Amino acid sequence: TDTGSQKDRMVAEEEWLRKWETGNIWFHKERGHPLLQKYLDVLLNGRSGLRIFFPLCGKAVEMKWLADMGHSVVGVEVSEKALKEFFAEHSLPFCEEPVPEISGAKKLQTTSGNIALYCCSIYDLSSSIVGKFDGVWDRGALVAVNPCDRQRYVSLMITLMEKNSSYLLVTVSYDPNKHKGPPFYVPESEIKSLFG
Q: Which terminus of the chain faces fewer neighbouring Cβ atoms within 10 Å, N or C?
C-alpha cells in the first residue's frame, strides 16, 4: 500500500496539545458527525445501555448525545483543556480524580457517572483500567495516530472490545503525496490487515 511520504511522519503529543491551546482545532465538529447519525443502528445493533469508547475524543459532542440515549461513554484525550471545554459547553457538572495506575493521569466524570473522560495518553490505558466496550466510535483517532504507531493502536483497541463489539471507523481518502497529514491516509487494505 502506498501511503506516500507519510509513513515516517511523526506528530508529537505536544503538537496536539498546542492545537488545543491555540484553538487550532479544525478537526472538531460542532454539530456532531453525520456518519454517526447515519450508521448509529450499526453501532448499537438493537442494543441499549451500551458502554461506548471514544478514542482521542477531544470534546466530541456525540459523547453527550449517546449518553443522553442511556449509554455509558468513556473517552481518552491528552488535552485537559478539551475535556474541560466539553463539560463546560454542555453545562455538565463533573468531578476530577487521579488514575492511580497511570502517573499524572486524571479521570473527569459527570456527577451522574455516565460520561468518564481520561486525560492521558491512549497508550497508557488498558482494559484493567477502563474495562471493555460494546462499541467504539473512531471518528479521527486511527487517522491521527502516527503511521508507525498504528499496529500498537489497533492492538490496544482490540483488547478493549467485547466479543460482540461494533467498531465504527471514519477514514479519509486522498493522495498522501499531496498532504503530509494528519489526518493520515490509511488505505482500506491496511485497515483490513490491521484489524484482521
A: C
The pLDDT tens digits for 49-96 are 999 999 999 999 999 999 999 999 999 999 999 999 999 999 999 999
Amino acid at 86: F
Q: 56 exposed, middle or buried (CB, 10 Å; 0-12, 13-18, 19+)?
A: buried
Q: pTM (2 decimals)?
A: 0.91
Calpha distance 174→18 (Å, rounded): 26
Reference 130, options 159, 87, 151; nearest CA is 159
Alpha-carbon distances, residue 85 vs 31, 51, 82, 90, 95 (angstroms): 15, 22, 5, 8, 14
CA–CA gap between residue 92 and residue 63 (Å, rounded): 12
- φ/ψ of 70, rounded to 5, equals 100, 10
DSSP 122: G
Calculate the alpha carbon distances from 125 to 56, 76, 95, 103 in Å. 12, 9, 20, 11
For residues 196 and 52, what is the distance between their CA atoms, to the nearest angstrom?
Answer: 21
CB 110 within 8 A of CB 7: no
